[in-house]
Amino acid sequence: EVKGEKVFVLRFLQCRNPHLVDVPFFAKYSASATWFDDLKPAFGEKEFFFEEEKLPGKGDRGSTFLWE
Fold first, then answer.
1. What span, in angstroms and rounded, lies between the C-alpha atoms of 24 and 64?
2. 34-63 pLDDT, tens per residue?
3. What's the structural domain count of the chain?
4. Residues 6+ apart with CB under 8 A from 64
5. 59 in a structural domain
6. Less crowded by CB within 10 Å, the N or C end of the chain?
């Protein structure tokens, strides 16, 4: 619990942007979430901090990723 809200504390182990690796972030606790995209940001935020970067493929279901 953080600030009176039950949350998951998360961090990326790998990421296209290496500056995002190991940076903790919070998602609202959900007993029914089974996938990462089932989670919602905690503390009333509209999106997670990394979504502001408009990462490749965001919102584009037809996109393909170039794996390095």
1. 27
2. 999 999 999 999 999 888 665 555 455 544
3. 1
4. 57
5. no
6. C
Polymer length in residues for the chain: 68
Residue 30: give the domain boundaries: 7-53
Taking only Cα atoms into account, the Rg of the chain, rounded to an integer number of angstroms, comes to 13
Measured from the Cβ of residue 26, the count of other Cβ atoms closer than 10 Å reads 19
Whether the full predicted model's pTM is greater than 0.70, yes or no, is no
Residue 28 lies in a domain: yes
Exposed e or buried b per residue across 50-64, where buried means at least 16 C-beta atoms within 10 angstroms of its C-beta:
beeeeeeeeeeeeee
Query: For position 50, what pLDDT does the model report?
Result: 82
Beta bridge partners of 64: none
| Residue 24 amino acid letter | P
